[in-house]
Write a structure and sequence with these properties.
The chain is mainly beta and 682 residues long. The protein contains 5 helices and 39 strands.
């Protein structure tokens, strides 16, 4: 497969934003001087208006970003065709590393908590954090000040929501207030559930029911106008009697009730910010604890073993006790900016420790068909660990109309517990931005990347886990050329921007945690080339966008090369927002995905090198939404939306089954879905 550079011409008609009035480019600041064109922010208000309740709804209109699979607990995020394990994912600055189970999603989230979601594409800034090979996703939760109405000391709001295609029901209650001039508090509680899932051309899926409960408590103490201390406590639990594999095809009939499985995230952080008038002090400190866990109910069933040909065979019965799987991370980030001789120097330390363990409430017991009985302790008390200490520095130099932002970071990474490995690397970064004239800006970005081998999925570790031979860290190079042109004056609009990006990056010794207890399984070198581009505008009551993205990936396994099966898709997103009056806001968006054809080369179980054609069917999906805030009832908002308006039967190109072209081993995405919510702010 070859990259189609003619697509860049089409890309000039695109943009990587949502509604222009609710999505903004992140501003350059002396603390976070990242590449502004590569970063986009989706506000929490947009998520509320569109009634978003999962990752796909939050991110699916952004160029270069994809979310696979329909069920919430099976969704995975991809930046420029690469799964999120090669990105830096944070919630309020707290790392969200780790895979619990390879057929479930990697994040446990409640979108109703979010003030904003920002996505940074690329690896040209040291400030994107450790392991940001393809970029970073930053989820930011709400503060008391975000909800308090002007002049109010205390407030509360409640909301109810539902939909028709997933039997979704939600209730949320929030209370917030300013205790005194310095201390403010926020409490958010949300509970929701979903049942049978309607998909076009198929019976409803009945074995992916879920219940979610979440809570957020935040205390903000303002010492003065410059200094703030924030205590942040979060807990999200998503579980149910449902299929264990969230991304695999569901069932339309059940012979017996599914066993319980659930996921939980507990996040605690203490953040201090000092935005001092002192030119040497602009300080950010974040100390945190994060634990993701998975619970499985006890079970008795068939004992499955692989025969000499690698096929699964039934051999007696197996009892598994209830067990919990944990991925725990403790971290500390310190960052400061000092103005010295007219230059802003941003520097900092980033450190964390991650630990894995399994707690089983009893022994696993196997009885073979021949009557042989054996037991095994599934608990792992001292599992694999990972430690990082990283340091970085970045500055900004202006030479006429050219702004150069060089940076470098040093990372020292160690694996312990079941492993004994260490890696370290210096990674230089560079951004060069040239303002050619009043309207045209050209930017060149470059960065070397580094990420030590991550910990394996927790489900697969045991007390015999050990490293393999030749374990390597991930590394590579990132290069991107961007251009943007302000068309507001030319088109006589309040705002209008067109842009195009072309990029290439490599990941040597690409690592994935799935079943990878030796840390050497399935390693390959990845080369990825692509483009994103677009146009957005805003004028009076109307705003809109159109964006385009494409990437072409190749995997090199030394003995052979093959297309990366998560690449090869041309995608266009279009949207309009119209403020019909002070009370009515209307929106529409549409995703258009072209057919994709790839070549899959691999070594089969017989040791033969084979090549197969992978074909993925394109689709188009339209969504509508309306928001009504009557002036006669202050604080009341009614939202109505319809997703997949034409009940299109389609499968996301990166979803399980479809990513290798097997539409039969996958479910269609959710069909026509009418959503409604009502909220009232007291």
């Amino acid at each position: 497969m070859k990259f189609k550079y003619s697509a860049i011409v089409l890309a000039l008609l695109a943009s990587n934003t949502l509604q222009a009035n609710e999505v903004k480019q992140l501003e350059m600041s002396k603390v976070e001087a990242i590449d502004e064109q590569a970063s986009i922010e989706v506000s929490g208000k947009v998520l509320e208006l569109k009634q978003v309740n999962d990752l796909k709804g939050a991110l699916n209109n952004l160029a270069g970003v994809s979310v696979s699979n329909g069920s919430r607990y099976g969704q995975k995020t991809y930046l420029r065709g690469v799964e999120e394990h090669s990105a830096n994912i944070t919630i309020d600055g707290v790392r969200q590393d780790g895979q619990l189970f390879h057929h479930s999603g990697n994040q446990v989230l409640d979108t109703s908590m979010f003030k904003a979601v920002s996505v940074e594409l690329g690896a040209a800034s040291v400030l994107s954090g450790y392991g940001a090979i393809t970029g970073a996703i930053k989820y930011q939760t709400k503060n008391p000040s975000d909800l308090l109405a002007p002049g109010d000391t205390f407030g509360a709001n409640g909301a109810l929501g539902m939909d028709t295609a997933t039997e979704f029901r939600q209730v949320s209650i929030n209370g917030y207030g300013r205790i005194n001039e310095q201390l403010s508090l926020l409490t958010m509680i949300t509970a929701n559930e979903n049942g049978d899932i309607d998909t076009p051309n198929a019976d409803p899926i009945v074995n992916k029911h879920s219940e979610l409960q979440s809570g957020l408590v935040k205390a903000v103490y303002d010492f003065d106008r410059a200094q703030t201390l924030t205590l942040n406590l979060q807990s999200v639990k998503d579980g149910g009697n449902r299929a264990f594999s969230g991304e695999k095809p569901g069932m339309s009939e059940l012979e017996k009730e599914e066993l319980y499985n659930g996921y939980q995230r507990d996040t605690y952080s203490l953040m201090y910010i000092n935005d001092s008038a002192d030119p040497l002090l602009d300080l950010y400190i974040n100390a945190y604890f994060n634990e993701k866990s998975m619970n499985r109910e006890q079970s008795t069933g068939a004992n499955w073993i692989r025969d000499d040909q690698g096929q699964w065979q039934e051999d007696g019965t197996a009892f598994y006790p209830e067990r919990d799987y944990f991925y725990q991370t403790t971290g500390l980030d310190i960052r400061n900016t000092s103005l010295v001789n007219g230059l802003a120097w941003t520097y900092g330390l980033e450190s964390f420790k991650s630990e894995q363990r399994i707690e089983a409430k009893g022994l696993q017991k196997t009885t073979t068909a021949q009557g042989e009985v054996s037991t095994r302790d599934l608990s792992v008390a001292n599992g694999p660990t990972a430690r990082l200490i990283g340091a970085y520095i970045q500055t900004e130099v202006s030479v006429g109309e050219l702004i150069i932002t060089p940076g470098i970071r040093y990372d020292s990474y160690q694996l312990g517990g079941a492993y004994d490995l260490s890696f370290n690397k210096l990674s230089p970064k560079l951004l060069a931005s040239w303002q050619a004239n009043q309207d045209l800006n050209l930017t060149l970005g470059y960065g070397q990347t580094f990420k030590g081998p991550g910990l394996p999925e927790v489900l697969m570790i045991n007390n015999q886990t050990s490293q393999g031979e030749g374990v390597e860290a991930e590394g590579g190079d990132y290069l991107e050329l961007k251009g943007k042109y302000d068309l507001a004056g030319t088109l006589d609009l309040q705002s209008a921007l067109v842009y195009a990006n072309v990029y290439q990056f490599t990941i040597d010794d690409s690592f994935h945690p799935t079943k990878n207890t030796t840390l050497t399984r399935g390693r390959f070198d990845l080369k990825n080339t692509g483009a994103e581009a677009g146009f957005r505008f805003s004028h009076q009551q109307l705003s809109g966008y159109i964006n385009y993205s494409y990437n072409d990936g190749e995997r090199d396994y030394s003995d052979y090369k093959t297309d990366d099966l998560y690449s090869g898709t041309h995608e266009v997103n279009i949207g309009l927002t119209y403020q019909a009056s002070d009370e009515w806001l209307l929106g529409w968006d549409n995703s258009l995905v072209d057919n994709a054809a790839l070549s899959d080369t691999y070594i089969n179980r017989q040791g033969e090198l084979v090549t197969e054609v992978v074909e993925k069917v394109g689709y188009g999906v339209a969504n509508l939404w309306v928001s009504y805030e009557p002036k006669s009832v202050a604080g009341l908002r009614i939202n109505v939306a319809m997703d997949n308006v034409f009940d299109k039967a389609y499968q996301h190109h990166k979803s399980f089954g479809m990513y290798w072209g097997n539409a039969e081993y996958n479910d269609n995405e959710v069909g026509r879905n009418i959503k409604a919510s009502v909220s009232y702010q007291f």
